[in-house]
Amino acid sequence: MNKFDLKALEKHFKQQNIKDSFEELYHCLGFIVSVSSCPEMIEPHEWVDELIITKDGKPHFINEEQVHTITANLIAWWNECNDCFEEAETLELPAGLGLTPSGKANKKLLNFALGYLDAFEWLSKCWQAKLPKEDDEANRTVAVLNFIMARFIDDKAMREEEPEMMEQLPDIEGCVKVLPNLISGVGILGKDLYLDNILGEKEVSETTTFYNEHRAVGRNDSCPCGSGKKFKKCCLH
Q1: CA nearest neighbour of 152 among 115, 106, 105
Q2: Contact 112/26 with Cβ under 8 angstroms?
Q3: How far is CA 73 from CA 59, 79, 161, 226, in A?
């Protein structure tokens, strides 16, 4: 598995043909984080087209190095996000996300937030179907993260639209500090909902007690089938 190389991506995304082919780099990274958080497994061939902005729907690469570096690193970032959320760890966000001297989201953070919310909107039906309406804590976690992302985009508008929510949250600097934990919390929630759905489908389709045993098995536990692999790498899929 390739290791995510942000510097290599930044180098290629400065080239005009890539600027004309894809959304801005940090928009792509935010989009992929949001996709990885979804309570369904969205594969690269399903989401990559959403990042391409050419009229013909195809990126205009000029050499094989661009093809390999860009595709490999976008997928590596997707894998890194998925692995982090599956392991219930805190995701290390790309460097440079922060505030300007005037206290507004810098360009990288702004584009990251735009990408995150674009993907959430794209997958909103999935969240609506899988997120239990009665789980107030889970619903609030998702809502707070989306609100903070929207705040990075237009702080003034969010202050006017949701003054009560603004009062409950830290200042914008505090929102930047809690962003990794919030993103990871929603990502872990998405993976838990995905796991619950997979187990539910297996319980419906099987009449034996084998899958009842799985209900007590975590994604990182040894698979009950005896393969020696982790559950998430074996019978979960």
Answers
A1: 105
A2: yes
A3: 15, 10, 38, 34
Query: Helices 6-13 and 25-37 sit at what angle, rounded to 10 degrees?
Result: 130
Calpha distance 207→83 (Å, rounded): 31
Dihedral of alpha carbons 89, 28, 190, 192, sign: negative
Contact 93, 178 (CB under 8 A): no
32-70: pLDDT as tens digits: 999 999 999 999 999 999 999 999 999 999 999 999 999
pTM above 0.90, yes or no: no
CB 99 within 8 Å of CB 171 = no
| Cα Rg, the chain, nearest whole Å | 19
What does the alpha-carbon distance between residue 69 and residue 47 come to, in Å, rounded to a whole number? 18
Angular region, 52: left φ>0, alpha ψ -120 to 50, beta rest: beta
pLDDT digits (tens, 9 = 90+) for 166-188: 999 999 999 999 999 999 999 99
Give the C-alpha separation, 117 to 34, whole Å. 8
195: Cα within 13 Å, side-chain hemisphere: 24
Q: What are the φ/ψ torsions at residue 10 (nearest 5 degrees)?
A: -60, -40
